[in-house]
Structures are given as structure tokens and as C-alpha cells.
Amino acid sequence: MKDFVDLPVQEMLSAIRSGxxxxxxxxxxxxxxxxxxxxxxxxxxxxxxxPFSGNSMRIGITGSPGAGKSTFIEALGMFPPLSQKQIGVLxxxxxxxxxxGSILGDKTRMQQLSRMPNVFIRxxxxxxxxxxxxxxxxxxxxxxxxxxxxxxxxxxVGVGQSETDVYDITDIFLLLLIPGAGDExxxxxxxxxxxxxxxxxxxxDGSNQERAQLAKVEVERAVHLFxxxxxxxxxxxxxxxxxxxLGLDTVWQQIEHYFQETTASGYLQSxxxxxxxxxxxxxxxxGLLQIITSHPQYxxxxxxxxxxxxxxxxxxxxxxxxxxANIRLA
Length: 330
Ligand code: GDP
Fold this sequence. Notes:
- Helices cover about 50% and strands about 10% of the residues.
- It contains 14 helices and seven strands.
């Protein structure tokens, strides 16, 4: 069999659009490759897929490790209204960047959901992608949408930069918290709470119930103090249980309501417009950086500048200003 990467782009796209999961997985792998010939092919494929993309609900989900994200995604995915949909699950795992094992990447997660014919799960965006995990995830979304997935869940661990990335590539952003973990906010930065369209107090079951109610009141109080969101919609706070299914129906109603309201108001379109602009700026930044760092002519200039900065001899802005004066883009 001909290797997938050797197929003409139109054949790749047809295979993806026909619902062939293996081709879809290989296409995502292709977009993650740094090899220049692969990159060129990946861009051609993405360009061909682009007109077929955009028709999904892009849902971001974040929370601390152990908050119950994968249990929640599995439960939501199996929930009747969603089990009628074509669901793509992408995980953005900042830890995989360091190739030291990952928080999200183990294969035992979402086992039940992964066996569903209407579900495609990609465990972890590769940190090897030139533009980092955000760019990798954006490209995967285009391919998933071209393959007909209409509900895309993007999961990330709320431990750093990645949740902001996820906010920038999804239409709605959900935060999972758990009650009674000392500080109700569990090290989740206030900014992350402010970004959330919905806050779900998970594990509101069994002996946790009372604490979960208290947590809800506390979170609602905090949310009231935030400025109005650009969507114009209030942040909803719900008690849920990914294991008993408590509140999942309300979560789904709220998500649908959000999409109806933001489509009608035009906010959804404007959010995606902003996201395209942001993607462009990031790609421009990465592209220019790539030119400079890959050019043999600049290798010595760069390493000397870095050496002087690291040794404390030169300030970074001074080094960059000197460097820029010596760089001529063809
Ligand atoms: P993640 O790291 O955020 O993906 O968390 P997991 O989904 O792996 O869940 C971490 C642990 O919490 C697992 O042992 C789950 O079984 C448990 N868990 C997840 N959701 C619930 C819930 O709603 N109630 C209870 N009691 N346990 C839960």
C-alpha cells in the first residue's frame, strides 16, 4: 500500500472526507511533522480541507489534573443528545512538550468513548509542531471538521499557558473544579475563571454534596465580581458529577443555549474572526523566527548574541537590536 504521505493531496482529502479514521490520524501526524517536505504537504492538505471546515461546536475544557476532565468528556460524549453527533476529542498537554511522560496522554483514558463509532480521540497534540501545541490543535480542528466532526472537545490541563491557548481556539470555554480541595479555586488562576463561559463543580456526589453546594455559592460569588464577558452572557456555575451523570443535561442545554445566543448576536463569528487574526500573527512570528534560526548565515550571529546575553554582558533588547541591524530578509 502506498504510504499516506505520498498520496496526492486530493486523494488524502477524499480519504479523510469519506470517514476513514486511519487516514485522518495519519493526516494529523503529517501536520505535526517538522520535515520541510512534510510541512509543505501538510499545508497543501490543510488548504484543501479549509473550505470544508468551520462547521462544528468547538468546546474547550480545562481543569487541574484529577478534576475529572476525561471522566466528564467520556460521560458527556456518551450522553444521548451527544451520542447522535460526530465527536472529536483533542487533548492539549503541555507536559508532553518535555517528552517526560504526560499528564493526559495515557491510553487508558476514555476507553468506552474511544470505542464509539461516532468518536475520534487524539490523545495529545505533539509539542514538536513548529508553532507549538496551539498551532497543532488548530490544524487538527480543520482536519476533524473536514472529516465531518461537528462537536469538537479540546481538553487541557489548567496548569499554565495551555488553557489560554485553548480559549483562543475554541468557541466556548468550560472550567472543571472540585469541591473541598482546600482553596476552592485550587490554584486555578483568577484569569482562567474570568475566561470561563461555564464553571462546573465536578464530583458533586456522595459525601461531597454539601461541600459541593458551598463551593458553588463561593464560585458564584466570585463570578459576580467579574466584569461582563464579551459574549454578553453570564458565566454559569453548576454542580455536576461525571460519574453519576448529575447535571450533564443542564451542561448540554447551557452549551446549546450559548451557541444559539452567540450565533444570533454575531459574537461567535467575531470571536472566530479574532482567532483567525491571532493565528495569523502567531504563524507570522513562527515563520519569521524559522527563517532567521534556520539560515546558516545567522547561526553565528545568533549564538554570539545568546552567549553575550546569558553571560550578563548584553541586555536582550540590545542584542536583538544589533541582530536586527545585521539581518536582511531576502
Ligand atoms: P482528569 O485528570 O481531570 O482527566 O481526571 P480523571 O477524569 O482522570 O478523574 C480523576 C479521578 O476522579 C478518577 O479516579 C475518577 O474516577 C474520579 N472522578 C471523576 N469524576 C468524578 C465524579 O464526578 N465523582 C467522583 N466521585 N469521582 C470522579
